[in-house]
Amino acid sequence: MAHNLLKGKKGIIFGALDEKSIAWRTALRCVEEGAEIVLTNAPVAMRMGEINKLAEICKAPVIAADVTSMEDIENLLTKSMEHFGGKIDFILHSVGMSLNIRKGRSYTDLDYNFTQKTMDISALSLHRVLQTAYKLDAINEWGSVVALTYIAAQRVFTHYSEMADAKSLLESIARSFGYHYGVKKKVRINTISQSPTKTTAGSGVKGFDGFVSYAEKMSPLGNATADECADYTVSLFSDYTKMVTMQNLYHDGGFSSTGISTAVAEQMEKE
Ligand SMILES: NC(=O)c1ccc[n+]([C@@H]2O[C@H](COP(=O)([O-])OP(=O)(O)OC[C@H]3O[C@@H](n4cnc5c(N)ncnc54)[C@H](O)[C@@H]3O)[C@@H](O)[C@H]2O)c1
């Protein structure tokens, strides 16, 4: 069901680790819709080798970049422009990692060295990418940048821990940079707040299966899948959403607007 929505557009996709990754699904959809892409991930993630399979399907080069390294980001943007023979039209930031969660440290017992790394990878990295692109003038006018977030930035989801703080910062950076890039180059920047989705990053959160089934029962449309998230992202990269910027957009089947659903109420009555 392709409509050439991204015909002639060129973009960079961060964060495709394996075929479950939201970035992986999005890369496939962007190419189906006529885009040319460059894939990137951290050098350590690339050693798994999976990304090469995606690169082959998408006929895309892979350029390694650790999002905490300015040098890597500058190299990525410069090489991508060389590859495309011009500027970029879209960027997907689909990157997140919490060291405290990974090491089993609870929110009331954070190791702040880990927290700084979490913030750097999961939030500040968006600023690094945008600032580098801004200085290199790497994005075409009306270009579009999307970063992925989660509703724990607005409400407490206990096990999401420090990632909630990282997502709040990420959403704030999208809004703040969206202003400056909008004024300068009409580049739009938004975050998509996605339903819980079974991926490597998602499954790292304790009690994740509980998140998924609770959200499924709460959402009138059910949980949004990674493929549906990819479709929504394509629409934000397309020219049909040119005036949408600085927004946090819920892609969650209605979860964020539901207080309690009949399914959850009935479940509670059983207890
Ligand atoms: N899975 C969910 O339930 C869910 C829900 C809402 C939002 N999100 C967000 O979606 C995004 C993508 O996650 P996903 O669920 O597809 O999981 P994923 O594990 O497939 O993707 C996370 C990616 O971040 C990359 N990464 C980590 N550290 C990096 C670094 N230093 N430099 C460059 N890349 C690095 C990983 O290699 C991986 O490719 C994340 O921002 C995540 O927080 C996920």
From TrEMBL:
This is Enoyl-[acyl-carrier-protein] reductase [NADH]. Belongs to the short-chain dehydrogenases/reductases (SDR) family. FabI subfamily. Keywords: Fatty acid biosynthesis, Fatty acid metabolism, Lipid biosynthesis, Lipid metabolism, NAD, Oxidoreductase. Pathway: Lipid metabolism; fatty acid biosynthesis. Its EC number is 1.3.1.9. It comes from Chitinophaga defluvii. It catalyses: a 2,3-saturated acyl-[ACP] + NAD(+) = a (2E)-enoyl-[ACP] + NADH + H(+). PANTHER family: ENOYL-[ACYL-CARRIER-PROTEIN] REDUCTASE (PTHR43159), ENOYL-[ACYL-CARRIER-PROTEIN] REDUCTASE [NADH], CHLOROPLASTIC (PTHR43159:SF2).
